[in-house]
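Hi P.,

Sorry for the delay on this. The queue was packed all week, but I finally got your sequence through. Input first:
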Amino acid sequence: VATDPDHSCAACFAGAARDIAHVRAKSRERDPGTWHLDTVGPSVPGIVADGDSVSYGEYATVCSNDADRKIATAFLRQTTGAAETKTHVRQLETRYRGTPSEVKNARVDRGPEFIGAKKDLQENLDIDVDMGLGHGATIEAVVNTSSVLTRKARIASGLPTILWPMILIGMLFHGTWFTTRDVDGYSSVHGDWSPMPIGARVLYLPKT
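Then the structure:
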């Protein structure tokens, strides 16, 4: 039974209510140009290091492709403000530009980070933003799975909790890499090298 099966209830709309049963619609044709986005948190403070730059935050936006949810990524964020959403969607669009998963549509909930960014994404990036109630099954599956994998990888590797965003991003990248390695059009995403799963035990041997 759904909270609002006809999606016509004003109170449900205002409260961003979701269907109780979040099940992927098997009859719906999946679109590689559509991405599902969701923001999770707050969590314990975490960091992401990129060269000499270090970012801090308690939230993360997880992005998953509609056609294949193993093609996914995440961005660390400090707030649930729209400004960070605009930046992250631009990074996502740039990363997948020219690939089979080029961003053309975004399916999101009615959180403040997406409501405030909708106009910018539609007018300046030409990305159609769908705030339908039924988008959640795909992204929730990715969030739940990646959360468990991140925790297991962190514990197995002995890394401190503060590195959870880097582990999350790494786990999702590995999934994307192995999913697209034999698919034409993704060389700009996964590069020409093989990733090593976070938490893997490595034996270093001398060259001589």
